[in-house]
Amino acid sequence: MSDIDGLAGVLHRSEEDLRYPISASQPLSALSQEFAHSTNHLRKLSELGKKGYAHFRRVRGDGNCFYRAVGFAWLEALDARARRGKDIGEVLPGRWPDPSSFGGLAQEYYE
User: Fold this and answer.
1) Which alpha helices (H) appear in 38-104, and where do they start and end?
2) pLDDT in tens, 16-47
3) What percent of the chain is helix, strand and coil (3-state, nearest 5)?
4) What pLDDT, in 10s, does the model give residues 68-89?
5) What is residue 59's three-state secondary structure?
6) What span, in angstroms and rounded, lies between the C-alpha atoms of 11 and 17?
7) CB burial of residue 82 (10 Å; 0-12, 13-18, 19+)
8) Is 56 helix (H, G, I), strand (E, B) or coil?
């Protein structure tokens, strides 16, 4: 493959990223194939699978990616609850992390 083919591929992917800020759901096995060279990544993917995670979505990194990812995950969780017949007005399971898990960072924030 020449440099031009590589550049054309990158440009095509970047155009797709601009049109689609969040990807369709993909199985974790897609990441396993992508990171087959890294035993550490494969171990982490295995841990995610054991915790019940089955898929992921790619999010365009444009400065709003964190908010887009969290917002979309929240909407997916609400949709999953509604499909199971649960009230979506109830609080989603989980809680805020204990501030002590952040070390001195939380204290610096409040000061």
Assistant:
1) 39-50, 65-83
2) 666 678 888 899 888 888 888 999 999 999 99
3) 60, 5, 35
4) 898 888 888 888 888 888 877 7
5) strand
6) 10
7) exposed
8) strand
